[in-house]
Specification:
By secondary structure, this protein is of the alpha+beta class. The protein is built from two helices and four strands. The chain folds into two domains: 31 residues; 66 residues, Roll (Nuclear Transport Factor 2, Chain: A).
Amino acid sequence: MIRLALLLSLIAGPALADRDDHDRARRALEAGEVLPLSEILAAVEAAQPGRVIEVELERDDGRWVYELELVAPDGRILEIEIDAATADILDIDREEADD
């Protein structure tokens, strides 16, 4: 019985973490601490066209930061950090290819 409980907790753990992240992001949006993702995506598209493949919202040095990974039209993978409250682009990093 203990093994079953342990197995269930291991399976449910990542899902609960995702739910906590979602709730935290929703509360930040409702509190006006972050802009809606649609505004962030529009700012990114204006600065660097491409297809977004991953989005994360994190606290960094006391502020909310969106981290986006996208594929540029030329195939490069870029990681873009954006201030979640202002949509200002903080950093654009090009991922180096594995040779």
